[in-house]
Specification:
By secondary structure, this protein is of the alpha+beta class. It is built from five helices and ten strands; from the N terminus they run αααββαββββββαββ. The chain has helices spanning 4-9, 26-31, 37-45, 87-95, 167-170, and strands at residues 62-70, 80-83, 98-101, 105-114, 119-130, 133-145, 154-157, 161-162, 174-181, 187-198. The two termini are 34 Å apart.
C-alpha cells in the first residue's frame, strides 16, 4: 500500500467546473439515441452494440500491455519497450535501469486494451524521483474508449519531452512510478521502473 505522501504525488490536476459524467454500461450507451442510424454505425465501429456487455467482466476494465520510450535519435533497430504484464521484466528494470541518452527528445507511448465497459477521463501519470526527491511529474490524458470490436490494443503517444543533460544529471538512478487512472480515481495500472541518463543510448 502506498504511503500518504506518495498518493499526494498522484493527485490529478482538476479543471475548475468540470464534473465527470456518471458511468454507463456498454448496453446503456448502445441504446442511447438508438433511432439515429449514423450514430448507431459509429457506435458499432467502437464495439458499442446492444448485448456487448456480455464481455468477460472477470478481467479488469483496462489492461496496460506495454510502455515504450520512442525517440528519433534511437539507433536503427533499437527498441525500449517494457512489458507491463511481465513481473520478471518489471523486477529486472528496477535493478537494471533503462538507459536514456541525455539531452534528446523522446516520448512515452503506452499500449492498452479495454476489456469491457466504457472508460472515460482516463489519464496516464508518472512521477520521477531521484534519491527520494521528486524531480518531475507528467500527466497526460488518454481520453475515453470502448472495448475494441476485435479485442485489439489501443496505442497512445504522449507529448515529446527532452531528457536532462550534464554530468550531474548522469549521476544516479531515476525511479519512476507510473499509473493509469480515471476521473473517478479508479486505478487501472500502477507500476515502478527506473532509468539512467548516459552520453549514448
Amino acid at each position: 500500500m502506498s504511503a500518504p505522501h506518495e498518493e499526494d504525488d498522484f493527485a490529478p490536476t482538476n479543471t475548475p467546473g468540470y464534473k465527470p459524467t456518471a458511468a454507463k454500461s456498454v448496453d446503456e450507451y448502445a441504446n442511447l439515441d438508438a433511432e439515429d442510424e449514423s450514430l448507431a454505425r459509429w457506435k458499432a465501429s467502437l464495439g458499442i452494440v446492444p448485448g456487448a456487455s456480455g464481455a468477460d467482466t472477470s478481467k479488469p476494465k483496462v489492461t496496460v500491455v506495454t510502455l515504450e520510450l520512442a525517440s528519433p535519435t534511437l539507433p536503427p533497430g533499437k527498441k525500449l519497450s517494457l512489458d507491463i504484464q511481465d513481473p520478471a521484466q518489471l523486477a529486472n528494470v528496477k535493478k537494471n535501469p533503462i538507459v536514456i541518452k541525455e539531452g534528446v527528445e523522446y516520448n512515452v507511448r503506452i499500449t492498452f486494451k479495454v476489456n469491457h465497459s466504457i472508460i472515460s477521463g482516463v489519464r496516464y501519470m508518472q512521477v520521477v524521483k531521484r534519491s527520494g526527491v521528486r524531480v518531475d511529474k507528467m500527466e497526460q490524458m488518454l481520453g475515453s474508449y470502448g472495448p475494441h470490436p476485435q479485442g485489439e490494443a489501443y496505442t497512445k503517444n504522449f507529448d515529446p519531452e527532452e531528457s536532462p543533460s550534464g554530468m550531474l544529471a548522469r549521476s544516479g538512478t531515476y525511479n519512476v512510478r507510473s499509473r493509469v487512472v480515471d476521473d473517478d480515481g479508479e486505478v487501472y495500472a500502477d507500476w515502478d521502473w527506473s532509468f539512467k541518463l548516459a552520453k549514448e543510448w
